[in-house]
Design goal:
23 strands; mainly beta; 47% strand; 2 domains; 5% helix
């Protein structure tokens, strides 16, 4: 499988949000029946930023490529196995009429216009900025399209008009809100608790040349009590995911083999980039010097996904590969093998790749860290082995963790978090080494 030209800054969203005012009932949510007065078709809130559109030709290049390039991978029917879910323990919702494994079909057909979309911080009528801390999206390519979403079991049978959006060539994301009561399909949501309601329902999908992945989800909101003593709690509710591969957490993501070309590189090249070609020279905390052999081996297929984290450095395309990391020092102080992962973030030509391990152990099992003859401070409850390797640098650390002073000072009924000057758990590095070219 090859994901063509998964590249560029942000890999951010191709958002599909919708609005009222479109003819034929195509007004913006998944059903095409929602009411979002004064929004354009395909308009999104964009974190509170104001949106400006400039019409462009379909072959005109933008930061995310041209409209024709976007349609070359997005204008088709995407088919995927669909896994319907139930509520987690302590949740009250259930969905029907479908259950188990079904099939999802997302169809995309081009519309009449394409746009270069930019965003600016919101302003009042006098031209003054309303918010100084708003993070606006980068420029986007927008392409008008008609989208259909259909499941074989009849839960969804929807069609709507929108604007496809892309920040980077080769990837698209649908973020489609809907109300169950407005759907053309037969999707139903019930609750065993009259005080529990599913809200913020939506369909989120990634579209690429290699296929589609995504979920149908919302939030379960539970109200307890009333008046000034009333409380409201909320937990995520995942109704369905696709394609549901085991290599991706929660079944959301596209499985990729180690030799698949993703984001302009293969997993094999990523592993090679973070594995030192020869033993590296390191200095231990006590000042002694040795060499450390680092071996990183694949243990299975990886997972490609797009992170929608609000943190700029964490958002965008991510490919993760499970690995086993073996560390052996020439002086015998460290000899261990650990489960970890190699993670590549970013687009073609701008990827950052890192191999990482995090192993937490009870203090009594410190020998399982691979370090020999380690002395732990009094009161140590757990130890944490931390490893990281990049293209030209890396480190391995063993950290002793003792109870938080807050916990020791708190009473049986409180957490102690309000104690003045009270910090979190105490952490002390007791062993470690680093290297760099």
């Amino acid at each position: 499988m090859r994901l063509h030209r998964l590249s560029g800054f942000g890999f951010g969203a191709l958002a599909l949000a919708f609005a009222a005012g479109c003819s034929g009932g195509q007004t913006g949510d998944l059903s095409g029946k929602g009411d979002r007065t004064n929004q354009k078709v395909g308009h999104e809130t964009s974190g509170g930023c104001d949106e400006q559109r400039t019409e462009v030709d379909f072959d005109e290049p933008t930061e995310a490529g041209s409209a024709n390039e976007l349609l070359s991978y997005a204008e088709r029917t995407f088919d995927a196995p669909l896994a319907w879910k139930g509520g987690d323990s302590g949740q009250f919702w259930s969905a029907g009429p479908e259950s188990g494994t079904g099939a999802l079909h997302i169809g995309v057909a081009r519309g009449a216009k394409a746009y270069r979309i930019t965003y600016t911080e919101p302003q009042n009528g006098s031209g003054q900025e309303l918010a100084s801390a708003v993070l606006c999206p980068p420029p986007r390519l927008g392409v008008e399209a008609t989208v259909s979403v259909v499941t074989d079991g009849g839960a969804l049978a929807e069609s709507f008009e929108t604007v496809l959006r892309s920040e980077t060539p080769g990837v698209a994301m649908l973020n489609v809100p809907f109300a169950v009561s407005e759907l053309e399909g037969e999707l139903s949501v019930d609750s065993s608790n009259p005080n529990a309601t599913l809200v913020q329902l939506g369909l989120d999908a990634i579209l690429t040349s290699a296929g589609t992945t995504g979920s149908i989800s919302g939030m379960e909101q539970v109200t307890s009590g009333s008046g000034p003593n009333g409380t409201v709690s909320a937990r995520p509710a995942v109704l369905a995911v696709w394609p549901g591969v085991e290599s991706c957490a929660a079944g959301v993501g596209l499985e990729v083999a180690l030799d698949d070309d993703v984001l302009g590189a293969t997993g094999e090249s990523h592993l090679a980039a973070v594995t030192p070609a020869a033993p590296v020279s390191v200095d231990w905390l006590d000042g002694s010097t040795t060499t450390l052999n680092v071996d990183i081996a694949s243990t299975g297929p990886g997972c490609f996904r797009v992170s929608n984290s609000p943190v700029p450095g964490d958002a965008g395309p991510v490919t993760q590969y499970p690995v086993m990391v073996t560390l052996q020092s020439a002086d015998g102080r460290l000899n261990g093998t650990y489960a970890g992962q190699v993670e590549a973030r970013g687009g073609e030509g701008s990827q950052s790749v890192v191999a990482a391990v995090m192993l937490n152990l009870p203090a009594a099992d410190v020998a399982e860290s691979g370090f020999s003859d380690v002395s732990l401070p009094s009161g140590t409850e757990t130890v944490s082995l931390q490893f990281e390797s990049k293209a030209s640098s890396g480190f391995v650390r063993l950290v002793a963790v003792s109870a938080s002073p807050c916990a020791m000072q708190s009473s049986g009924s409180g957490s102690g978090s309000g104690t003045p000057g009270c910090a979190g758990a105490n952490q002390l590095q007791v062993e470690g080494a680093s290297w760099s070219d």
